[in-house]
Amino acid sequence: MADQTNHVLDTILQLMCEGIVIVDVHGMITELNEAYARFLGIQREQALHRHVTEVIQNTRLHKVLQSGVAEKGQIQIIHGHEMLVHRIPVLREDVVMGAIGLVIFQGVNEQYQMMDRIHQLTLSSTREKTPPSVDSPTTLRSFDAVIGHSTEMMALKKMSMRVAQTSMTVLITGESGTGKELFARAIHSESPFAKGPFIDINCAAIPEHLLESELFGYEEGAFTGAKKGGKTGKFEAAHTGTLFLDELGDMPLTMQAKLLRVLEDHSVVRVGGIKKHPVTLRVIAATHRNISDMVAKGEFREDLYFRLSTMHIQIPPLRYRKSDIPTLVHYYIEQLSTRLQVPKKRLDDRTMQVFYDYAWPGNIRELVNVIEVILEMMEGCIVYPEDFPEFIKKKLMSPDVQKESEQSPYIENNITLKGQRIHGDREIILAALQQARGNKVVAARLLGIHRSTLYLKLKQLGL
Ligand SMILES: Nc1ncnc2c1ncn2[C@@H]1O[C@H](COP(=O)(O)OP(=O)(O)OP(=O)(O)O)[C@@H](O)[C@H]1O
């Protein structure tokens, strides 16, 4: 029975995502689990029967053996990472028999949590003072759901938030999966139209002969098979809200002319009718196609392009803003683990590099799908490069990979974004200190980190 219990305990120990080290009364390591060994970059067996101070940097477990007092929630720097640790003495009848060290691998993620907190702060300070619409479907549809701290994304979010407050027509372009719909929904939910509906229509998915009646509706008897009483179209359905015209680049030229008329008239005439139905709404159009090229080729009406592109949001592909990858990866691992009801996973040191090296032709949609596949398929609690789908591993061996990861040619407000990267921690910390009026304790709280971590970061950054 005792054997079986030991076996079960040992299995739990090895499966745990946290690092565990157990020392005897002399400070000699009697147990160190796989997660900890991997973090330290050693074989588990190499650590056993050695003094804890020889194996673990900045440990205080030997001190806990002397004091017999638990040290919970301390920050310990191990291999350059700030880790949250608990050190617990093992007592039998008040006599110290040994000690257990528990490392929460939160330190590694702390930077991302910190960035997210600051991101929230930045958003709330840039937003208009008006409270968000009470009946906006969910906060996850607002800009809070748009993850990314790269210079490009921060600039886009800032610009979109400003646009949201107006009633301007917006054109959003970007490759498939870059978040065009996400931006459209965020603009809607933070706009004066937020109380109205968000209606979307995919112009590429609807056959040409049906698109007109889908958009503008029809009157009774407009065509064979028309419903009694007629039907309202998407424009009328979106009245007081937002109409999202997805894949606008696939809209036939004849329909483009009709769309332009509605945008200029602010009213629709249903198919088979003559009456004008006034509509108040915002139109957001999106496409993955290069509309100005299409205009040059005569495939897209120039007048409609000019009408739509007064506010043009260009979302860069993920490969041109790789600094967003860690935040996105951590965010989606967290989100998807909860949704899939799987234990939280940790990344092996080499794994983030794979996320970086791959070019993500399907952009964030592909990234999300890959994380979902990994979480569903893998066993254990650490994600290794081997856990990636085969097609990614193969692609990474191809010589084109480097080329695909070159710097962004994207230009914003006529200023090239190249070389203008925010200097990470420094900017974030300065923003928090400013917000906290120089009070470091408050700044640390705003950042969601321990104040000792903040002091350390200030020192490292020479602030
Ligand atoms: N910045 C982001 N932060 C978090 N999630 C994102 C971000 N951008 C995109 N996503 C997610 O990626 C997926 C694809 O996004 P979305 O549908 O908005 O892309 P799209 O550009 O409209 O794609 P398509 O052109 O194929 O319609 C969604 O699950 C979305 O939530």
TrEMBL record:
<dbReference type="InterPro" id="IPR013767">
    <property type="entry name" value="PAS_fold"/>
</dbReference>
<feature type="domain" description="PAS">
    <location>
        <begin position="5"/>
        <end position="57"/>
    </location>
</feature>
<keyword id="KW-0805">Transcription regulation</keyword>
<dbReference type="InterPro" id="IPR058031">
    <property type="entry name" value="AAA_lid_NorR"/>
</dbReference>
<dbReference type="InterPro" id="IPR003593">
    <property type="entry name" value="AAA+_ATPase"/>
</dbReference>
<dbReference type="InterPro" id="IPR035965">
    <property type="entry name" value="PAS-like_dom_sf"/>
</dbReference>
<protein>
    <submittedName>
        <fullName>Anaerobic nitric oxide reductase transcription regulator NorR</fullName>
    </submittedName>
</protein>
<feature type="domain" description="Sigma-54 factor interaction">
    <location>
        <begin position="146"/>
        <end position="376"/>
    </location>
</feature>
<dbReference type="InterPro" id="IPR000014">
    <property type="entry name" value="PAS"/>
</dbReference>
<dbReference type="GO" id="GO:0006355">
    <property type="term" value="P:regulation of DNA-templated transcription"/>
</dbReference>
<dbReference type="Pfam" id="PF02954">
    <property type="entry name" value="HTH_8"/>
</dbReference>
<keyword id="KW-0804">Transcription</keyword>
<dbReference type="InterPro" id="IPR009057">
    <property type="entry name" value="Homeodomain-like_sf"/>
</dbReference>
<keyword id="KW-0238">DNA-binding</keyword>
<dbReference type="GO" id="GO:0043565">
    <property type="term" value="F:sequence-specific DNA binding"/>
</dbReference>
<dbReference type="GO" id="GO:0005524">
    <property type="term" value="F:ATP binding"/>
</dbReference>
<dbReference type="InterPro" id="IPR002197">
    <property type="entry name" value="HTH_Fis"/>
</dbReference>
<keyword id="KW-0067">ATP-binding</keyword>
<dbReference type="InterPro" id="IPR025943">
    <property type="entry name" value="Sigma_54_int_dom_ATP-bd_2"/>
</dbReference>
<dbReference type="Pfam" id="PF25601">
    <property type="entry name" value="AAA_lid_14"/>
</dbReference>
<dbReference type="InterPro" id="IPR025662">
    <property type="entry name" value="Sigma_54_int_dom_ATP-bd_1"/>
</dbReference>
<dbReference type="Pfam" id="PF00989">
    <property type="entry name" value="PAS"/>
</dbReference>
<dbReference type="Pfam" id="PF00158">
    <property type="entry name" value="Sigma54_activat"/>
</dbReference>
<dbReference type="InterPro" id="IPR025944">
    <property type="entry name" value="Sigma_54_int_dom_CS"/>
</dbReference>
<dbReference type="InterPro" id="IPR027417">
    <property type="entry name" value="P-loop_NTPase"/>
</dbReference>
<dbReference type="InterPro" id="IPR002078">
    <property type="entry name" value="Sigma_54_int"/>
</dbReference>
<keyword id="KW-0547">Nucleotide-binding</keyword>
